[in-house]
């Protein structure tokens, strides 16, 4: 979904020229060749700071989060006496903290600059990660997971809000995909890291290998937490980032204004009422709930492999990284496909939606090792649904930053809320492992509902655009009538005047 080009006055005539074939190719590959040097320089600088902070920060956050699964299958279960149900509660307690922190964090961000609040939460997160290495029992782990969830709650929503405040629609989709792909890289790296630590560090200085994993993750995350204080630019209207010149900030404001984006304002009851009575809040929330729930099988990939009793601890940590690799490649591919087809978000979303449904059917039936393995890998290929969905939400709510923030925050919160309890009920490892036939059968239906929501959002958005066009035509009609009357009157006066001035014979 593209908007008007941002150009300097001197380049206005150049921008009106038709795009060359190479420029059209550049539009698909990255941001396009039809832009000014000023805009190229600004976007390049934004990428260097915003994207590096967001992507590395997300990688570190999810590395610290994913290592719980690797630690569980690498000795933590036995050392701390976990029961079958406790594995599900690891995720549940994390999400409880995440939900508790979501609303207060959004309120804090209306009063405190993101460049202060977000890196402070990251710094505290790093400290808590070190604390996992000293956990003495299951209750310690649960308590730390709640705190960790609370501290992560502002990050993803904050990143999406910042990206939506600086990038245009044609720039946004690829960058959200790159940001989100960090979760696959983190899960893969966590598997490799745990496999290496288990072989080389297990028992070193009297500490188990899984405890060393948390120490290493804390060491990795600490410096990137401090980097956030420098890299986060807030939004163009209140920016104090030293790496942007005043002229670049001014140009960034003009870019956002060209797409109808205005400065954020404090929420009022009238604004809240409007958001609550507008369809995007409910449609995107439902879509993300179905997405979050339907992508849970990949989290149980290692549990299934361990239950087969045919792989070593090293292999159980290593094999699931194939699913993360598939997710990494397909997530990036979906965003490029979406932009290649003129920002066709709904058409692109059908691809991971259908892939997920096929994968869910395979893991639910479980016809054999090979088919079940393919089902888990296909589930990884469906995780790219999320970035395209949020790019779509950013575009539909582009003219209203408050609605955009609420839609993203609420949908993310409810998506995580359902993940907190649904797996505990239908994917209880103490009852249904390793096949989870009943749970995966239910998730097949959830995956089908995910496809339905793509159509629902498309239908509502099309109806709203039609209504906007009708309103615009209605507003322009009186102006056209007045212009016609004025033109006729002027033409008539001219004729009268011309006639009166003719010489008499």
Low-confidence stretches: 1-16, 494-505
The N- and C-terminal alpha carbons lie at a distance of 68 Å
> How many strand elements?
0
Number of structurally distinct domains:
1
CATH class: Mainly Alpha
Rg calc: 27 Å
SSE order, one letter for each helix or strand: HHHHHHHHHHHHHHHHHHHH
Largest sheet: none
**Envelope shape:** globular
Task: Summarize the model shown.
About 80% of the residues lie in helices and about 0% in strands. It is mostly helical.
What does this structure look like?
The structure is a single chain. The protein has 505 residues and is mainly α. It has a single domain (36-472), classed as MFS general substrate transporter like domains (Growth Hormone, Chain: A, Up-down Bundle). Helices cover 78% and strands 0% of the residues. The protein contains 20 helices and no strands. The protein is globular, with a radius of gyration of 27 Å. The N and C termini lie far apart (68 Å). Residues 1-16 and 494-505 have low confidence and may be disordered.
């Amino acid at each position: 979904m593209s908007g008007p080009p941002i150009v300097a006055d001197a380049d206005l005539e150049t921008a009106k020229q038709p795009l060359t074939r190479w420029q059209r190719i550049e539009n698909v590959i990255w941001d396009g060749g039809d832009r000014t040097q000023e805009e190229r320089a600004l976007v390049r600088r934004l990428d260097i700071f915003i994207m590096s902070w967001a992507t590395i920060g997300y990688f570190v956050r999810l590395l610290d989060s994913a290592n719980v699964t690797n630690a569980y299958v690498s000795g933590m279960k036995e050392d701390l006496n976990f029961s079958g149900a406790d594995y599900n509660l690891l995720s549940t307690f994390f999400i409880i903290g995440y939900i508790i922190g979501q609303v207060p964090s959004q309120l804090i961000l209306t009063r405190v600059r993101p460049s202060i609040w977000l890196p402070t939460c990251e710094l505290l997160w790093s400290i808590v990660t070190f604390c996992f290495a000293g956990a003495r029992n299951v209750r310690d782990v649960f308590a730390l997971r709640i705190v960790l969830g609370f501290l992560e709650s502002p990050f993803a929503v904050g990143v999406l809000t910042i990206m939506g405040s600086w990038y245009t629609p044609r720039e946004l989709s690829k960058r959200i995909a790159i940001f989100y792909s960090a979760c696959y890289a983190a899960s893969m790296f966590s598997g490799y890291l745990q496999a290496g630590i288990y072989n080389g560090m297990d028992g070193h200085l009297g500490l188990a290998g899984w405890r060393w994993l948390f120490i290493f993750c804390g060491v990795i995350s600490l410096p990137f937490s401090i980097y956030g204080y420098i890299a986060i630019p807030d939004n163009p209207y209140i920016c104090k980032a030293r790496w942007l010149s005043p002229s670049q900030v001014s140009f960034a404001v003009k870019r956002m204004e060209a797409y109808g984006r205005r400065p954020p304002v404090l929420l009022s009851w009238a604004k809240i009422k409007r958001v609550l009575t507008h369809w995007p809040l409910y449609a995107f929330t439902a879509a993300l709930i179905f997405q979050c729930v339907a992508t849970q099988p990949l989290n149980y990939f290692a549990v299934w492999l361990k239950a087969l009793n045919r792989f070593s601890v090293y292999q159980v940590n290593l094999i699931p990284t194939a699913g993360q690799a598939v997710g990494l490649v397909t997530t990036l591919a979906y965003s490029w496909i979406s932009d290649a087809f003129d920002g066709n978000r709904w058409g692109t979303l059908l691809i991971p939606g259908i892939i997920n449904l096929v994968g869910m059917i395979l893991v639910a039936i479980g016809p054999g090792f090979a088919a079940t393995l393919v089902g888990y890998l296909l589930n990884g290929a469906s995780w790219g649904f999320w970035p395209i969905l949020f790019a779509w939400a950013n575009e539909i709510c582009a003219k209203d930053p408050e609605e955009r923030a609420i839609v993203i925050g609420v949908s993310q919160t409810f998506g995580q809320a359902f993940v907190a309890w649904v797996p505990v009920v239908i994917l209880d490892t103490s009852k249904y492992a390793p096949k989870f036939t009943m749970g995966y059968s239910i998730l097949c239906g959830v995956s089908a509902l995910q496809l339905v929501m793509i159509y629902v959002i498309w239908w509502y958005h099309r109806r709203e655009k039609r209504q906007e066009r009708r309103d615009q035509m209605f507003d322009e009609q009186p102006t056209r009538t007045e212009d016609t009357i004025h033109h006729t009157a002027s033409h008539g006066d001219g004729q009268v005047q011309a006639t009166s001035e003719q010489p008499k014979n």
